[in-house]
Structures are given as structure tokens and as C-alpha cells.
Amino acid sequence: MRNLVFFIALLLSFTVCSQELNCKLVVNAQQTGNENVQVFKTLEKQLNEFINNTRWTSKTFENQERIECSMVINIQNYQSDSFQASIQIQSARPIHNSSYASSVYNFNDKDFNFNYLEYQNLNFNTNQFESNLVSVIAFHVYMILGIDADTFELNGGNLYYKQARDIVSYSQQSNSKGWDPPKGGDQTRSALIKNILSPTFKEFHSVLFNYHFKGLDFMAKDVKKGKTAISSSLMELESLNKIRPNSFLLRVFFDAKADEISDIFSDGPNVNIADLVSMLSKIAPTYSSKWKKIKF
Q: Whole-model pTM above 0.90?
């Protein structure tokens, strides 16, 4: 009996103490012509452990609540401990009463140069720059946490976005690409967090919440009502576009959502979305091939 109690307590401790993310990170070094070099395998292993074993928040996540995400680091060149790379980040959010996971963050960060010595310690400090490798990874972790939280609660991601902003602030001392204060047209980490925390883009947060919590989560109960809520939430983007046409934040949103939007409205039951299709074609013309698939 005593052993049984101990075993149950052990299981509960794993549940209560589980980390926030379930992340699969891959280091792809094919472009270097030396993808089998051991340092790449070590880097991949260390980063997976770093991301999945670090406690990024004070919130308790049960195992089934861990956020599914992936990161692919594409190494373009390296010399000694200096690496030139880019990183593609994706995360998904489970939909209520469904086996479906909705893509919520899809970002290609092209400015990812870093130094790394095999087996070096990877430590994250909330208030201090440790390395560009750690800062870039941590920044995107907090973006994943923030966007995920925004889909469950209106403005629920603010705490995590502010931590991402702090990372930008102290990482600017490194003079590495991607941290500089944004200039016109920049599509960098610094520009991303400035936009997402700007009152100018407040509709972005309400769209994330209404689209997922009032739309997708409701579709298992009432598909038509859920689709109508999604359509209404997307229409909020029109006012955002009027203030900042062709904004970086809109591109980030549609990079994650364009395929899903097209799929949702290309199947029954039909809802009146003529205005939606017209609006999407106007504010996101890059995805016109997706919008043409929508039936109404």
C-alpha cells in the first residue's frame, strides 16, 4: 500500500512539474556540406533539453497542456565556434473537443548568427544577456507562450510578450542582427515585439482570442456558429489594416492562418462571407490563391 501511494505521488509530481513546451528542435546543416559533424548533433541535443526542461513561467502545465511546437535551425556556414543560420519556428494550439491542432505562430527568423562551443552551458537569465543563441531561442519561446495564451484569454499573453521585449532590450548590447530598434519595413524580432505590444495593433489580440476561443473551439458544438464567429473576428483586421496597411504583424498572422482560413470556408455548412473574401483579398493579396478556393 505504501509503495502504491509513493507511485501515485511520483506520477502526480511529474504532472504538476511538467514544463510548458513540448518542442522538437532540429539542426539542419546540409548547406554546410558537413551535416554529420558531431557539433551539430550535440547542439541539437542540448537545445532540445534546454527548451523542454527549462521552467519559463510560474504557471503549472499538466502534461496534456504542454504547447506543441517545433524549431528548425538551418546552418548556412560555420567556422570554429561561429555559426551563420536562420531559424523557423512553429507552434500549434489544440481545439476544444477535437483532435485538430491550429497553427498559431509561424515565423522565419533569418537573422540568427551565434557562437557556440560544444557542450557549453546554456543558461537563461530573465534580466541579463548570456549569449545570442540563448536570447534568440528564449525570445521565440516567449512569443509561443504569449500567442498561445492570447488564444485562450483576451490579452492573456501580455506578460510573456513583455518578457520577450525585455530580452530584446538587453540583447541589443550584443550588436547581433535582429535586435536593432526597428526601422521602416523591418521584419525582425525587435519589430515584431514592438508591433505586438503597440496599442495601434490592439485588434490583433482580440482577433486571436475571438477566432480561436469563440470560433474554432465552438465548431465541435455548432459548425455554422463557429464559422460565423471566425468570419466576424477576421473582419476586425480591416480596421487594423486601415491604420497600418500591409503591416508586418498581418503577414505574421496570415503566415500561420492562410491555409486554415481557406480550408474552413471551403467546406459546408455555408455562411455569408462575401464581405470576408473581399476584405481578405484587399488586406492580404499575397495569399490570393488561397482566397480563391473559398466557396460561398
A: yes
